[in-house]
Amino acid sequence: MYGEPLFLQPVFKDRIWGGTKLKDVFGYDIPSHTTGECWGISAHPNGPSTILNGPLQGMTLDQAWQKHRGLFGGQSGEDFPLLIKILDAKTDLSVQVHPDDDYAQRVENEAFGKTECWYIIDCEEGAELVYGHHAKSRDEFQTLVNEGKWNELLRTVKIKPGDFVYVPNGTIHAIGAGTMILETQQSSDVTYRVYDYDRRDEHGNKRELHIKKSIEVAMIPHEDADFAPVKRQAGDLHIKKLIQEAYFTVYHWHINGTSHVMDNPLYMLVSVIDGEGEIETQNGVSSIKKGDHFIIPSTVKKFTLRGNATMIASKSN
């Protein structure tokens, strides 16, 4: 029986809006000064993580999903369902929207649409997100886009560190400059850009927009999702269930001391966003530190956490 966490090597993505905070804050060895994304737990073909320890060392997560489904409780499905990222938005991301499963499969030949959520690790004072819009109909949306009336169309919200934002498919959104987030999402890489501030890349070209598809998949009119975090405590582990919805359940964990966890579900995805400590399973003790990403497989039925650390954990629903 495989009785230890699967620690993963992240994959990094250069982005026009990226910076160096993934190195400065988390100590990652990033490939460029415009590194925007750390794919910490990924089985997506555009950037699968590699297992760093144990008998499966060197295997990618998608390979483990295909060949060792018992580690994931025998969960069905051809594709690993979730993708965990850390994003460094040095400048504004494009205003964008993601499709649902049906549209992604039918139009893009992608396994999943993209519902996501964000935990705000850090942001500059006064930072904002684009979240939703003010159009009441698709015709009004199209007219405001055609006329470039972005201030009339787009809805902005203030954010601060520790905030949590749920972004179901169809939500018009954009992460603002000076923001670092941990993103839990369906394992999809389909993004439709609505507006990109007329930016140009290093070759002087504007990035492609996807207005027609954006309007087809957007939630119009916009409606905020209704959810409420739930808190509980297990020993010295403070658990806040941030959201439970169709695709995932996401938790904020803070350990300051020791906690014995007895109810591991199918499998848990864990990213350490601050501090350090250790996790003990039937196979021994592993150290954990800020910037680590690991999976607690279903073959680990109980484990002990020690230390002073903050983590975002999630499971597939």
Walk me through this protein's architecture:
There is one protein chain. This protein has 317 residues and is mainly beta. The chain has two domains: 6-217, Jelly Rolls (Sandwich), CATH 2.60.120; 230-316, Jelly Rolls, CATH 2.60.120. The chain has helices at 21-24, 61-67, 101-108, 138-146, 150-153, 211-217; strands spanning 6-9, 11-19, 35-41, 50-51, 82-89, 95-97, 116-123, 128-133, 154-158, 164-167, 173-175, 179-186, 192-195, 230-234, 237-244, 248-261, 268-281, 284-289, 293-296, 303-316. Strands 1, 4, 14, 15, 16, 17, 18, 19 and 20 form a nine-stranded antiparallel beta sheet that branches. Strands 2-3-5-12-7-10 form a six-stranded antiparallel beta sheet, with no helix packed on it. The radius of gyration is 20 Å and the shape is globular. The chain starts with 5 loop residues before the first strand and ends with a strand.
Determine and state the CATH class of the largest domain. Mainly Beta
Helix fraction, binned, reads 10-25%
Order of helix and strand elements from N to C terminus: EEHEEHEEHEEHHEEEEEHEEEEEEE
How large is the radius of gyration?
A: 20 Å
Low-confidence stretches: none
Query: What characteristic shape results from the CA principal axes?
Result: globular
Major sheet description: 9 strands, antiparallel
CATH architecture of the largest domain: Sandwich
- The number of distinct β-strands equals 20
Sheet/helix structural class: mainly beta
CATH topology of the largest domain: Jelly Rolls
Beta percentage is 35-45%
pLDDT averaged residue by residue: 96
Count helical runs: 6
N→C terminal distance:
24 Å
The CATH superfamily of the largest domain turns out to be Jelly Rolls
